[in-house]
Write a structure and sequence with these properties.
501 residues, mainly beta, Methylamine Dehydrogenase, Chain H, Neuraminidase, 2 domains, five-stranded antiparallel sheet, 50 strands, 49% strand, globular
């Protein structure tokens, strides 16, 4: 892909939409900030939001109208259209808000509605049982759910517990009410995750207990939720290829990516730098001689079934040119790839879906070589591995078993018992420590375990901002990041960075 046609997703730049007063309850504009948008919002937009499926939503108003119009810009489209799938009711809505759990909210002064973006055909449901007063503003709380402020002096956390039976979803609503001064004008969150309530009498900070922002900050959003990820760093940028989500587009559906993504820490932007020509999942992304190499994993062709591949592609990060590289000698459904001492190592289990344990398959290739070299096998295990590089060593988490380090100089593996055995965590190294973050098969899927390579001791770290597995961790310019993944209520499109203290 030529550089001048790169699809830049300039998330976390400032897009400000002045939201006019609906119903005459207050006259000050309400300023909403979201990531930048690829297509100019419709005229008369009063509220704008972005969901985890790479779709934008807007409320528009017109003079003399009895109700406002809900508009949608579906993922990948260039034209706004009137939303029709959910049959949004007419009303004097002043805010549309997509939370972090796959729900879309509509608020007027007197009513609050919600709709599941993963099942728009169910339409809208009214959230009942709210306290007296007019709804003045909506925001996303630190827990990813909606917050609403009423002019009667009530700050309300709303939540929905989704259950599915016989293919039909239902939602159990709940709420928590906090007293604040009357005359609310706006809601926002500070750097700690506390809620800032601006009222006619001034501002008030309310601690609701979601303190992950003391340790983490959200710095970007990917162009759509994504998981089953691997990646590596080249020239101060992080790269990852492919991935899969069940929450993409309008309406939300399963989607596999054929793109190679890059994250720039200077601008906090994600960018698509190449199209690989076919969706790839669980593929390894590594570096060799200034090129990105995408190896193995599964292909999901438009015509045909998902299947494991030996295919390797190399991409020039400057031009986006994609070329075929030497194929792997073995099928690897969920490999990792890291460069150590000028060689690209790819490793994974050949029995990914089997029950039996097997040795880890390891192969490598160097600059100018046309065939992969088989290396000594690694520790026994099964399933997908997740890992990182520490100096010249490669570190992996073997599912529900142990941490393992590979030294390419000696071709030796060292295994390390873990306090809590997990599957499919996010893994990164920083300051002589290996951070094992989240993962499945554990009571706390946001929990963080840290292994110090100097004193050879484990300790617990600050919980992730949310439950996560199947995402990817990375160290970029001495900063620790986590992006993508899924667990809990939804897939994830957010990129988090550990705060330096």
């Amino acid at each position: 892909m030529p550089k001048n046609s790169f699809m830049r997703f300039l998330y976390y730049l400032l897009l400000v939409v002045a939201c006019s007063c609906i119903g005459g309850k207050h006259t000050d504009p309400v300023w909403k900030t979201y990531g930048s948008i690829p297509v100019r919002p419709p005229e008369s937009t009063i509220s704008l939001t972005y969901d985890g499926g790479n779709t934008y939503w807007a409320l528009t108003s017109s003079k003399g109208s009895k109700g406002n119009t809900l508009m949608v810009l579906p993922a990948g489209k260039k034209v706004w259209e009137k939303e029709t799938l959910s049959h949004a009711p007419s009303g004097l809505w002043h805010t549309v808000l997509a939370d972090e759990h796959g729900m879309l909210w509509l608020a007027s002064n007197k009513s609050l509605l919600y709709c599941d973006l993963r099942d728009l055909s169910q339409g809208w449901t009214e959230f009942t049982g709210l306290a007296e007063g007019d709804i003045m503003d909506l925001a996303i709380g630190s827990n990813g759910s909606a917050l609403l402020g009423l002019n009667s002096g009530n700050l309300i956390e709303v939540d929905l517990e989704k259950t599915t039976k016989d293919g039909t979803s239902s939602y159990l609503p709940s709420l928590k009410v906090h007293r604040i001064p009357k005359g609310l004008k706006s809601l926002s969150l500070d750097d700690r995750g506390d809620v800032i309530c601006v009222t006619t009498e001034g501002s008030l900070s309310v601690d609701l207990g979601g303190a992950w922002m003391e340790n983490w900050e959200m710095v970007a959003r990917m162009p759509g939720s994504n998981h089953d990820l691997r990646g590596d760093v080249l020239d101060h940028r992080f790269y990852m290829a492919g991935g899969l989500t069940a929450e993409y587009g309008y309406p939300m559906d399963s989607y596999a990516y054929s793109k190679l993504f890059a994250f720039d820490p200077e601008t906090n932007n994600w960018e698509v730098i190449a199209d690989l020509g076919v969706p790839r999942v669980y593929c390894a992304t590594g570096t060799l001689n200034g090129q990105l190499w995408v190896a193995g994993g599964d292909l999901l062709p438009e015509k045909g079934e998902r299947h494991t591949t030996r295919m390797v592609q190399k991409v020039d990060p400057k031009s986006g040119t994609v070329k075929t590289a030497p194929s792997l000698n073995n099928n690897l459904s969920a490999p990792l790839a890291f460069n150590s001492r000028g060689r690209l190592y790819v490793m994974g289990y050949t029995n990914w879906l089997g029950d039996a344990q097997a040795p880890l398959y390891v192969t490598s290739i160097g600059e100018g070589e046309t065939q992969w070299r088989t290396e000594p096998t690694g520790p026994e295990g099964k399933g997908a591995i997740y890992g990182c590089k520490y100096k010249d060593q490669i570190c992996i988490v073997v599912a529900n078993t142990y941490l393992a380090l590979f030294d390419p100089i000696t071709n030796q593996w060292t295994t390390i018992d873990m306090p809590l055995k997990v599957r499919s965590p996010q893994v990164a190294s920083i300051n002589d420590e290996i951070w094992v973050m989240g993962g499945r098969d554990t009571n706390n899927q946001a929990g963080v375990q840290i292994y110090n390579l100097k004193n050879k001791q484990w300790k617990m770290g600050p919980d992730l901002p949310r439950e996560l597995a199947w995402g990817v961790g990375f160290n970029l310019n001495g900063q620790l990041y986590v992006t993508g993944g899924a667990a809990g209520k939804s897939y994830n499109n957010r990129t988090f960075r550990l705060k330096n203290k």
